[in-house]
Amino acid sequence: MNPVQLALRVLRVDRRSRLSAVLTALGVAVGTTLVLFLATLPSAVDARLERSAWQHSAVDERNVARISTDYFLNETVVRLDVSGEEPGSDGPEYPGPGQVLLSPRLAELAAQHRASELADRFPGEVVGTIDEQWLKYPEQLVAVVGHPPGTLQPPKSGFGAVSADTSDVLLDVLSGVGVVVVAIPSMVLVASAARLTAARRERRLAALRLAGATPGQVIGVVTAETAVAAVVGTVAGLLLSWPLRHLGAMVPWGGGTWLVSDFTPSVATIALVGVSIPVLVVLAAVLGLRRVVRAPLGAAMSVTRKRPGAWRLLSLVAAAAFFLFGLATAKQTQGLGVLLASLAVVLLSASIVGPWLTGALGSLFASLWRKPSMLLAGRRLRSDPKAAYRSVSGIVLAVFVGSMALTLLPSFETFAGGGRSFQDSVLYVDVPTAEAAAGEQRIRDELERSGTAATVVRTERVRLELPDGYASPALVMSCQDAAAITRFAVADCAGPPAVRAFARQPVPNTGLDVWSTPPESASSATAQEVPLPDGVPVLPLGNRDPKVSSSAIIDPALVPEFTEHGTTTLAVKPANQADREQVRTALVRALPGELVNSRERLLAGQQTMLGDLKRITAIGLGMTVLLAGASAAITAAASVVDRRRTFSALIAAGTPVRTLGRALRTEAALPALVATIGAGVAGSAVAAGFFTLFATEPVVLSYWLLAPVVIGIAVALIASSSSGPMLRRISGERISDE
């Protein structure tokens, strides 16, 4: 009888082996589904970028296209002003002069709101909508406005031009981390399912070895048994990944959801996942046969295994040293390869140290026991610490990742804020100084045409250079205008023209120079220096927000020689917050193609990224906890199955089933308590190291860091309750069955 026939016969006649095979196939299916989905994320990002590539500005002999971004109700609007022929097959057909194309979502918003708030920004007749195959995501707001040929100037670098997206590095990194974070608990789930009949199978295989079977034959039997479940689970996982695409497409990222087709895996990806996962599962099962192959008699008699040695503690030191080395390498070279490898080593060190820690904990409680359940649990932890730790290994990973996330996310939130020095309601446009006067007049005309009350202020962007060579950004504007539109706390505007600067930055009243800020399209050599007169009054300037970009206000009367070689900001503050969208519309009409800035636009990227990180973290942790909980529950049930003889003997000797149940719960709680606390501390420490790559400030620690530890212990206790039905079933069986 060949190994495949023998494996199929075992599955046909042994109910426990069938249950183990079914659970193994289920674990493989879950792991395959999630790994295949995560493996499609990089290609999904590429699909987004390919669809939206036509939106970015291009200039050639036939065609002029100018792109800018706008905002409406905190949603980004991509505007493309075109003049010339359509781009061909790389995008939708361009509208003609006086015509407009809108994306479906933008057309819906334009119909729902007053024309002065949105539709008037796109002058012309709306002749159609843009198909979603040309949108980055289905909800993207895009407008294409047609102009007569020759009437649209090419974009000026630094004023309204928007660079094309090239990749989503954050999502690429998260997808790689997600594959590891999801794959490891999935493999733990598979291993837990395989352990459901491990002791019985080990005795059966040992009997085959003692009866004369060669190691190759034993390995063949195990390979066949495992391959049946692994192949069935992999096929099921590949099929389940198809409906999972629809759920994944509903998860927002980068401002919008996805198309279902984005998550279609390539044939190569399907083949790689479909082959590698069964091979890994079979390989793990074969590696677990070392004891049967080397010492079949000891396996048959269930001889106690050698306890883990204290040398395992050295792995913690080695992992910490490697992580510090990876951190230093990342800071010097900006490469993350070594750092991510060191993170994997840190995770591996937990599986090395965990069994030793579990055994030491068991020895402690076995010597200090006060109740029979404590004694039984302590002896179990001491006699087989590897099996005891296996039940919480997935939970340890979940707690580690959760602690990292809850340390990094609040710390990254401290970066939010800042931006230009204007108040939140102010809208502004940066233009070359030579065009500022004409632009300001067009803005006033548009505001008057729409009947919108607003304050229009012109300010020059400059650098204030101190005698010691230090230079800081500054604005040339009157004290009254600064009080009206900036976030500076201007006290009293009475007195002669002055320089107002932060008190924390001492500014002398002599040796000061003002440098203009050339446009990005111009050379820095065009910057003009204007020295300030000695003895100029320097007054303290407070601010309402510590993260403003400018640090000084210079009265225009002090720089009368300031020329047109610079950058001017035209700022508009609505009289009423309700008129803000009408003011934005006036700016867009007055300066078509220019980038209308606001504080929410500058913060939008930060807020979107933080929201995406929180969402992905919650989803990832949820999946990890579910997988870890399932593996812990199966492991708890497997521990009862493995010790059927022991429990049957204890019950026959008069040990109450309730006492055995408490012992099983204690077995789960003790390793979970110590391991999750250690994982929480390690996760926060690793997160603190990662944070040094972005800032010098310490990480933000909160009470929420206790949540992963508490949840981990709770999941372990709930999972341990799965051993109760199995224990009660054993108590009703005859001891002669074992």
Automatic annotation (TrEMBL):
Annotated localization: Cell membrane
GO cellular component, as recorded: plasma membrane protein complex
Membrane topology label: Multi-pass membrane protein
Swiss-Prot/TrEMBL GO biological process terms: lipoprotein localization to outer membrane
Signal peptide: none
Keywords attached to this entry: Cell membrane, Membrane, Transmembrane, Transmembrane helix
Main location: membrane
Domain ABC3 transporter permease C-terminal: residue ranges: 179-294, 621-721
Transmembrane annotation, as ranges: 21-41, 173-197, 218-243, 263-289, 310-330, 336-366, 387-409, 616-641, 668-695, 701-719
One Pfam family per UniProt: FtsX
Protein family membership: Belongs to the ABC-4 integral membrane protein family. LolC/E subfamily.
Protein name, UniProt field: ABC3 transporter permease C-terminal domain-containing protein
Organism of provenance: Saccharopolyspora hordei
